[in-house]
Amino acid sequence: MSASTATAQRSRDKLFALPEICKRISRSLDNKTIASCSRVSRAWNTSWLPIIWHTIDAGQQWHDLSFQESLGKHGDLIRILKCVRYDNISLLFNADHILCRNLVTLVLPMTTLANQADHARLLRQNPLLRNLSLCIWDASSRYTILIDAIGDLRFLNRLAFDENKTLQTSTLETILSRCNDSLRELSFKGTYFIKHPFGTGEGFASGLMATSDSGSLSKDEEIEIKETFGILSLYMDNIACMQDLVLNLGSRFPQLNSLSLRESVEVNFGEDFPDRLAKRCPRIKHLDISYTDMDDAGLANLIKAFPGLRTFHAAETRLGDKSLAALVEGCRYLTVLDINTTYNPGGYFVQRLLERCWELRKLDAWDVSVNVGQMMEEARRSRTSDTRTLASVDSSIVQSGYSSQQDPQGRWASGALFQEDMDSPQGYEPGSDGEVLDEDNNMIWIDYSFSSGLGLLARLKDLHTLCLHSTSHAIGVPEIVWMSRNWPNLRRIEGLHEDEDEEVVQWLRDNRPDIEIDGDI
Fold first, then answer.
1. Do strands 258-260 and 286-288 pair parallel, antiparallel, or not at all (unpaired)?
2. Which is it for the CA torsion 170, 172, 178, 181, positive or negative?
3. Which of 402, 406, 396, 341 lies closest to 371 in space, CA to CA?
4. What is the mean predicted confidence (pLDDT) over 185-201?
5. How far is residue 295's CA from residue 413's CA, in Å, rounded to a whole number?
6. How many folded domains does the chain comprise?
7. pTM of the full predicted structure?
8. 142: nearest Cα among 183, 105, 170
9. What are its GO biological-process terms (predicted)?
10. Assigned domain for 145 exists
């Protein structure tokens, strides 16, 4: 080996000795390529092994002999261990030394009386664990050993009982009491509570308990005050329960900041649900009720009950003008809004939202129309002078926020917006497929050059992500240079096509490697 080759290799080894460099590179490599990198040299092996062993997922490796043999050498490199329901974790206990002692995230297999001692042992040898998901097989049995081990996790931040069919209120009460100093997030995703030992949560409730009165609205009943817990985030996605369960849980979490009921279509929310929830959890600022069956009036009441909302997700709901009006009037500090494919709210309220909510950073509003008359007028005037490939207006024009009266400080940054224009400029008619036609029945095209329509977006100084998925677009090198100069915080572009946008992709790789390219490439 020549001296120059040896010097180059040493420089390369020093570069890959930095964990941050390897981690960043690994995001664009598959597992097979990463494994090949680890075999290049001894130095590379040392650098890439922590990435290879960082996450063990799905449990398939347990039946692989080579994995079993390597586990004894590299088990301490595992940071995230996700087991499936019937995995046997006894392989993690070696007679010679303790394996797997540096976990931060653990998804345990189903816990039974037969394996709870092993599960408890694994928890005790990972005292720095932050994220734990468990499922208990038989709620009638005693799991004192496991509960004691959970209670000793002084840094546990998130606890999940996802798809747990047998959890009892006494078990949850005990665990939360032991972990109250550190625990901040609780999850019950995918649980069918209607026929579940937890029921409506009456045994867990405190202060105000939700009670049902047949034939009328529900009512609240004063009960004894119990210990409250410091839970800030509650995730109840894809669950089936009565609304009383949500209210009774909330009575113990007065500091609750984030609530998700996403895809919980089997929960029947009454008219009084928003006000009763606000009594128990007045500090909620992040709310996700996407894919639920709450109507427009119910959503509006929910928004009014929490005027301090910062993020609101209501995709695939019956959100309409009442809800948007409530957002405009009450949620001036909204930063994230997802009204993707909702109940066709009017463009007027979307426009008002953009004009009033100056803190908005992300807006996902696919299939929601807004008046883009000024943009179309500019595009029409530039048609004769611009020969670039154009994109029709019947698709999403550009997935970023726009308002004819933008924030004077130019702070808009957002997600998907704009489809067809419901309030077309004078003299234009909508065609059969949603395209906009001029007085001569010619289709109006939106030019993606920034000398026309998109020049109106120059003030999006905080724009972070530009999404072009499912959008016919024509962005050339001049446009991407313009973006780079005018959107200083742009860090991600989605939906570029390797074949159609070859020059743009190459320019980004050569000049702006800090901008992540993701999507159809």
1. parallel
2. negative
3. 402
4. 92
5. 28
6. 2
7. 0.72
8. 170
9. SCF-dependent proteasomal ubiquitin-dependent protein catabolic process
10. no
